[in-house]
Amino acid sequence: MSRLLAVALPAVLLAGCAQTNLNASGSEYIEAPPILSISGSEATEDSEARVLFSLLAAELAAQSGDYEQASTYYLAAARLSSDVQVAERATRLALFARNHPRALAAAERWLELSPGNIEAMQIAAVLMTTTGRDDEAAELLETLVDAVGTDEGYRVVVSLLAQSEDRATALRAVERLVDANPDEAAGWQAHAELALRFEQLERAREIAWTGVERFPDAVHLRMTLARVLTEMEDDDAALATLSAAVDVHPDRRDVRLAYARALVDVEDFERVRPELDRLLDMDPEDADLLLTTALLSLEAGRFELAREYLEHLLASGRRTSDAHYYLGRLHEQAEDLEAARRSYRAVDAGEHVDDARLRVARLTAELEGHAAARPILEDLQQDPDEGIALRAYLVEANVLRDSGEFDAALERLARGLVEFPGSEQLLYLRGLVHERAGNIPAAEADFRAILEMDPENVSALNALGYTLADRTERYEEAYDLITRAYEQRPDDAAIIDSYGWVLYRMGRLDEALAKLERAYDLMQDSEIASNLAVVLWEVGRRDESRAIIEEALERDPGHERLRRVSRELGD
């Protein structure tokens, strides 16, 4: 700021306040002062004064929350000033005010003052697509790609244009960019990626396929094509594309890993093991790769293979906490609870350490009783991380509920609600405990407390609806609650089960049976099995009913509802 401007500051501020309503809003926006054409020293002094006035007016408007007015004044200042920071501030204020034409004008001024500024180019390019100027956007994007580098530049382009409100213009801008640089595989990939982001799958497939034909060695382009085909649910074509990529680049680990993951996703387990072995052959001592292959094996349900990889990782002495954690998960799956607890206790670092501590507490309660686990849980409930402390209350209450100690569970949940007032998770679990204990009014009160805070909470809608359907005769009310949950999650097995059960209680047996069969197809859960068995029995399909009960009891012999239904139907 010049000495003249500094001296003039108080007078200009007073003049501005006296003459201008800086709090104007809505239709009362005041346009910035016009730029006068003046020559010589008078022009310099007058411009500086106008810049200062505009800046002061803008900042005062911003402080009062009138960002539209503030951005108007800042743009006026940016046009008069050669200060890059003023142009940048004008751009950001206009963006905040969601005035895209004004933001673009400010961004273009920013680029005039700082032609190589990457951030200014990015903002201007997005705003050009938002305002329909795809040709200019393409030119600016080409400059940006040249400045950043081809591969990284095109990644930036996709990330930027995915934010555009005008998807058609954004895609045209990238298309023009590709047309200008047809020999860059990264451009074709960017074009396909953007079409994929915009869910234009046919277009994305066409672009990616044309790109692969032009650039058969472009591995990332092939992988993009595979992703598009997966989104189109053409799994065979996606696998063929990835297999071809492996053939073209047999030594590329990322390609083989993508192929192995795709095989897991489609449950083609015969081909998974050879791919995992080939991955490890590339670098048998790579700890990250060992962990990845172990997790892929877990995902594929190949538990012995996963154990083999994890023990190899453990023997390597690297990522041992991760290895112990997932070995613990494997032991739990095999119902070897003592071995699982030993593995979890060995987790002493990394992202899984807190979950391992909670699992140790739960397993100790299961193996030795709640009293043995109490000191561990109490320590966790005092953890400075509120997320851990809350989970510890939930773990303890669940353990007590599962063992039938309802009063103790309610006491711990009450304590938890003192520490975490209004916690929806604690209220929900307390509602479930009240329901199990037969205190239906208390269960309803907890579920309704959640719905007062969050009227469309799916879990509370479903739990309250199911409780009313199962434990009262308020079927119409239950039906309304469950229907609201079902509308939000039509593919959730637990909600479909509730829907089927309320239909059964309303006497709509055929509809109930259809819902419960679908729920059981989605998830072989003991609660669903018991409800399905009841309805099958009612419609006369009694052999099927008995078979469902027997199959479920083999999986879960201690399930209370299953055993009760089995006794009732046996009569």
Query: What percent strand?
Result: under 5%
Distance between the first and last residues' Cα: 95 Å
Helicity level, as a percent range? over 70%
CATH architecture of the domain at 250-351: Alpha Horseshoe
What is the oligomeric state here?
Answer: single chain
What does the overall shape look like?
globular
Model regions low in confidence, pLDDT < 50 over at least 5 residues = 1-44
Task: Assign the structural class, choosing from mainly alpha, mainly beta, alpha/beta, alpha+beta, or little secondary structure.
Answer: mainly alpha
Tell me the CATH topology of the domain at 250-351. Answer: Serine Threonine Protein Phosphatase 5, Tetratricopeptide repeat
Per CATH, the class of the domain at 250-351 reads Mainly Alpha
CATH superfamily descriptor of the domain at 250-351: Tetratricopeptide repeat domain
Major sheet description = none
Radius of gyration: 32 Å
Give a topology summary:
Layout: H1 3-19, H2 40-63, H3 67-80, H4 84-96, H5 100-113, H6 118-130, H7 134-148, H8 150-161, H9 167-180, H10 185-197, H11 201-214, H12 219-231, H13 235-248, H14 253-265, H15 269-282, H16 287-299, H17 303-316, H18 320-333, H19 337-345, H20 353-368, H21 370-381, H22 386-402, H23 406-419, H24 424-437, H25 440-453, H26 458-471, H27 475-488, H28 493-505, H29 509-522, H30 526-538, H31 542-555, H32 560-570
Helix pairs in contact: 1-2, 2-3, 3-4, 3-5, 4-5, 5-6, 6-7, 6-8, 7-8, 7-9, 8-10, 9-10, 10-11, 10-12, 11-12, 12-13, 13-14, 14-15, 15-16, 16-17, 17-18, 18-19, 19-20, 20-21, 20-22, 21-22, 22-23, 22-24, 23-24, 24-25, 24-26, 25-26, 26-27, 26-28, 27-28, 28-29, 29-30, 30-31, 30-32, 31-32
